[in-house]
# Entry
Amino acid sequence: MNYSKYYPIDVLNGEGTRCTLFVSGCIHNCRGCYNQSTLSPDAGEEFTAELADQIIADLNDTRIKRQGLTLSGGDPLHPNNVQQVLTLIQRVHSECVDKDIWLWSGYKLSELNAKQRAVIALVNVFIDGKFVQALASPNLKWRGSSNQVVHYLK
# Structure
């Protein structure tokens, strides 16, 4: 899995102060996508064990109270990303028990395969659906277009 950006402190992509990872790879190719540089699975840098360690350390840093981890992209549920995203989420659950996890994907909840559902079973908030430029509005909370759905799962 590759990633394009990691923000150890982010207040825009989910509730509270968060760590946010933008993974690379997306098959949806939404017109008007604000993150087109993440569409190729090969874009950015390789996600490493060292970065995973840094994310865990940042989530547990008591100097800055972070509410949780945000996964966006690209698409965290892209076939190239699912296994490493699942491993990271499992690690967050075991080492950062008080943190929530938010995940954005162009896939709809009803379209997910078994591996993708295993990931979603461990997230607190899942925002699904492709970005549709004709339905875009800056007034929508946590989503770019009105067809996208915010699922509060836990």
Summary: Residues 2-152 form a domain with the TIM Barrel fold (CATH 3.20.20.70). The mean pLDDT is 94.
